[in-house]
Automatic annotation (TrEMBL):
Subcellular locations according to the entry: Cell membrane
PANTHER family hit by this protein: ABC TRANSPORTER PERMEASE YTRF, MEMBRANE COMPONENT OF TRANSPORTER-RELATED
Membrane topology note: Multi-pass membrane protein
Identification of the protein by name: ABC3 transporter permease C-terminal domain-containing protein
Organism of provenance: Corynebacterium halotolerans YIM 70093 = DSM 44683
Alphabetic keyword roster: Cell membrane, Membrane, Transmembrane, Transmembrane helix
GO cellular component: plasma membrane
UniProt superkingdom: Bacteria
Spans traversing the lipid bilayer: 272-302, 323-345, 365-391, 412-431, 451-471, 492-513, 775-800, 827-848, 877-898
Domain ABC3 transporter permease C-terminal as annotated: residue spans: 281-392
InterPro entries, per the entry: ABC3_permease_C, Macrolide_Exporter_MacB
Length: 910
């Protein structure tokens, strides 16, 4: 221990004398830990404000006898007529194993209103016994029967406080007046039995079963598969985490659910891939952080080279030299991580106490302490490479002031980075080509973070080659440029980490931004291939179809029209989707063949078992099922499985040639059904059926109608003519209104419409064909922020390495060099480091974005199954201009401020 303390004494002395030199590294360690702690503590405190443990077993009643998969995602119940006076609560209590009890817990998305103000919020109902006994909030009191405790955000929107009255509408029971007992943190309102439902009279089929509701079962032991089967016999479906963690063997399952059980047993590969993918994403952030703080340690080691050489001359071993250097990382990590932990946890706890007095703060110590440990470990790792170099330095050269990082020429190890980068690029390209099909997309998606991490590491490893190349390229350049290139190699512990950090920063940031822009451009192009680009639709929120008439929605439509100017309007009618909790109406095409997914082959197969990947007939039959997912565009908010319209609806579409448009218009003038291209045309029988629960569908009407497959390939639904709807007995439901303005809509107009509708209406939404997610100039702002970070890192590196550079420039002054040579050399060096890092990062980012983009997939007949994203990768020239041109010039200007003499023009005359 004494030798360790002696070895680290120079490090501790240097940190004590020059604390500001490591301040940047301390802040870079403290900020992520603080932000992570703030977000985690605040989120956990909101989620666990009531300190109620989530049960591991939940049951729902369906009636008769049930069979289910172990995770209850697939199930079937026979249903039965209950006798008079039947109580679901008593029936469950009788079927439970000995020692187990059940409590009703409801959670329902509801509307809460106070006068004209309305808000949607999840409302939970607990039993009075489930409320915490020792909780005494200062923001009101816990609710009793007929009372409700609102989230702070909902109470603020409604303008209510404790003692006020609000109206609650859960969808099943409307118009109940409740008194506000207080406000609470979190995102859900709280009630107690029997405000929403009385447990004694509760039925799972009342509609609450469609939400996060049910009978919460607790007991002294783990729930077993035998216990699940016993409740199945009583007509209950059960989802138990105990059973999911320890599933039964496949032979104990019903035959139709054995594949599900096998999946639970055999999904280890998928689970591990997900874990590896998540770990790779975390490691990308860790590597980026290490690269950003590493210049601080490397420059500190370079500055202390003479001290380490003296230590070696006095008998210090290479291990002790390494310990001395690693102490920089250890102490910086300890100080930074502890500072971040104290500020994050302490500051959040204080703010929570101010905002939510009386409510307990929850600190998840395990992940918080783990983040602290990772931060300390990361700081030590960042100092590892400088420690190795310092331990290998020659004593005689170090005592004379030479640094151990001088690049004298090419070394074989420098090729590791470029070679690895080439291998990663080729491997990624081949993986995209081999695994780019639809069935392998999940595997490729899980592998992409790993490939991106390897790409990042290889890119950072190319920094020595780039710095070495700067010295080679500038050999015959003017003096300032030649000196700058040589200094980059002479002080590689400064230059290489700076270039690696800036390359990594630009690479990760631009890869994320370019991928996002590519996805947006891809989506916009697909939408515009179906609908007119300028179209927008004002409609009720999803699930509210039929609750608004044209007159009800007219004010919202006029608000939108006032923002876009003159516009053609199309009122939309159709058959809405239903809800799984209640019977609903569907339009069914009798005899339509669909290709079904086969688990053994992992792909869709034709009804006769032929594989569409190898059989052209099966490929043609399965084309509609295998084709790219339909796009909704301007109809994204329309709750419809089929539109009912005449020829006027065709003005909404852009992806139709004149022949198909004329044929569609002619068909809609009579009884007909239009479907997307690729479906089967001809006469077909359609049925209108009532579907819901476990009962067989009930046919309400049927008709044989001509089918015309002329709509765009990516249109998601059907269009039924009014005459056909009348023949089927369908009553059209108003779904919304589409506006077709004369010009396109920019980001500002779209946002203005959305904000205006949100402020002045309720239950209304707007959808666009081409939606602009970012404001104009977004890329310039992002590039500007990145450029500013580049300038800060370069300036920090120049400032920390100023003593070494000052000695060299003093020697040049003694030889009679021009007084401005020092500042010009610093300016050129800063520009070179910023330029080579940003340009390389830009090229790598666009390459990685292209490699990660999906490819266009075709079937054996050449039909396009999926339009890939690779063709939509675009170079943002504003970003290129800011990062590749403006930033290096700005860095040169900043670099010119270093080593500048006062009155340089007169310096030589004095």
């Amino acid at each position: 221990m004494s030798s360790l303390l002696a070895a680290t004494r120079p490090t501790r002395r240097d940190m004590a004398r020059h604390p500001l030199r490591l301040l940047a590294a301390i802040l870079l360690v403290a900020l992520p830990v603080a932000l992570f702690s703030v977000n985690l503590v605040w989120a956990w405190s909101n989620q666990s404000a009531l300190r109620i443990a989530e049960p591991r077993t939940v049951a729902w009643y369906s009636g008769g006898q049930c069979i289910q998969s172990p995770d209850a995602t697939q199930a079937h119940c026979s249903g039965a007529e209950e006798p008079p006076g039947f109580s679901e609560q008593e029936h469950l209590a009788a079927a439970l194993p000995e020692g187990f009890t059940a409590q009703l817990r409801l959670n329902r998305l509801s509307e809460v209103s106070a006068g004209p103000a309305v808000d949607s919020v999840h409302v939970r109902q607990l039993s009075a016994d489930a409320l915490p006994r020792n909780l005494d909030p200062e923001t009101g009191s816990l609710p009793g029967p007929g009372e409700i405790m609102l989230p702070k955000s909902t109470a603020a929107r409604l303008g209510v406080d404790a003692g006020d009255e609000v109206e609650l509408d859960t969808g099943e029971r409307a118009g109940r007046s409740l008194q506000v007992s207080g406000v609470m943190p979190g995102y859900a309102a709280l009630t107690v039995e029997p405000t929403l439902a009385d447990p004694a009279a509760y039925r799972s089929v009342d509609g609450f079963g469609a939400s996060d509701s049910g009978w919460m079962i607790t007991g002294p032991d783990a729930f077993t598969w035998e216990d699940v089967l016993a409740l199945n016999e009583a007509g209950f479906l059960v989802q138990s985490q105990d059973v999911i963690d320890d599933p039964p063997p496949a032979e104990e399952l019903a035959p139709e659910y054995r594949s599900t059980g096998t999946f639970i047993h055999d999904n280890a590969l998928s689970t591990w891939l997900s874990v590896i993918s998540a770990a790779a994403i975390v490691l990308i952030g860790v590597v980026l952080l290490l690269l950003l703080i590493s210049p601080v340690f490397t420059i500190a080691v370079s500055r202390q080279s003479r001290v380490f050489a003296l230590m070696s001359s006095q008998g210090a071993t290479p291990r002790q030299i390494r310990w001395a250097v690693l102490a920089y990382g250890l102490f910086t990590g300890l100080i930074g991580a502890t500072l971040g932990l104290v500020l994050g946890v302490g500051g959040t706890s204080l703010w929570w106490a101010v905002q939510n007095p009386g409510w307990p703060v929850t600190v998840p110590w395990l992940p918080v302490v783990a983040a602290w440990g990772f931060a300390v470990l990361g700081s030590v790792l960042a100092a590892f490479l400088p420690a190795v170099l310092a331990a290998r330095a020659a004593i005689s050269a170090g005592i004379q002031g030479a640094t151990p990082d001088r690049m004298r020429g090419w070394r074989p190890w420098m090729a590791v980075g470029p070679v690895a980068l080439v291998i990663i690029v080729l491997g990624w390209f081949l993986a995209g080509s081999v695994l780019g099909g639809q069935s392998d997309r999940r595997l490729l998606h899980d592998l992409e973070p790993v490939l991106l991490l390897l790409f990042l590491l290889s890119l950072a490893a190319t920094a020595p080659v780039l710095v070495w190349g700067l010295g080679r390229i500038t050999r015959s350049a003017p003096l300032a440029l030649r000196l700058a290139g040589r200094n980059a190699g002479r002080q590689s512990l400064r230059s290489v980490p700076v270039v690696a950090a800036l390359m990594a920063l630009v690479f990760i940031a631009l890869t994320v931004i370019t991928t996002e822009q590519t996805n947006q451009t891809h989506t916009q192009a697909l939408n515009a291939s179906v609908y007119r680009p300028e179209a927008l639709t004002v409609s009720p929120t999803f699930g509210s179809a039929g609750q608004f008439s044209e007159e009800d929605l007219a004010p919202a439509v006029e608000l939108a029209r006032s923002k876009v100017g003159p516009a053609e309007s199309i009122d939309l009618y159709g058959l809405p989707f239903g809800r799984s909790s209640v019977p609903w109406i569907e339009l069914h095409r009798v005899g339509q063949q669909h290709c079904m997914y086969d688990e053994e082959s992992g792909t869709l197969l034709a009804p006769d078992g032929s594989d569409p990947r190898t059989d052209s007939g099966a490929a043609a039959l399965c084309l509609p099922d295998r084709r790219h997912a339909p796009v909704s565009g301007a109809l994204g908010g329309v709750d419809a499985q089929a539109l009912i319209a005449g020829p006027e609806i065709l003005s909404l579409f852009s992806g139709m040639d004149e022949g198909k448009r004329a044929a569609a218009a002619e068909a809609l003038r009579g009884p007909a059904v239009l479907m997307r291209t690729g479906e089967t045309s001809g006469e077909a029988e359609f049925q209108v059926r009532e579907v819901g629960g476990e009962q067989e569908p009930v046919v309400l009407g049927s008709a044989t109608l001509p089918v015309h497959a002329v709509l765009p390939e990516l249109f998601p639904g059907r269009i039924v003519s009014p005459q056909a709807a009348q023949a089927l007995g369908i009553e059209p439901v108003y779904l919304g209104t589409t506006l077709l303005p004369s010009g396109g809509l920019d980001h500002a107009t779209q946002r203005d419409i959305r904000e205006t509708l949100a402020e002045e209406t309720y239950g209304v939404q707007v959808s666009y064909t081409v939606e602009h997610w970012s404001f104009p100039g977004y890329s310039v702002v992002v590039a500007g922020v990145l450029g500013l970070i580049v300038l800060v890192v370069v300036a920090l590196a120049l400032a920390l390495s100023a003593p070494q550079s000052r000695r060299q420039f003093a020697l040049l002054d003694a030889l009679g060099a021009d007084p401005s040579l020092a500042s010009r050399t610093s300016a050129v060096l800063a520009g070179l480091l910023a330029g080579v890092a940003t340009v390389t990062g830009l090229v790598a980012a666009y390459l990685a974005s292209w490699l990660g983009a999906t490819r266009t997939v075709t079937d054996i007949n050449g039909a396009v199954l999926e339009v890939g994203e690779a063709g939509f990768v675009r170079v943002d020239w504003w970003i290129v201009l800011v990062l590749a041109v403006v930033t290096p010039l700005a860095a040169a200007a900043v670099g010119g401020l270093f080593h500048r003499r006062r009155g340089e023009p007169e310096y030589r005359e004095t």
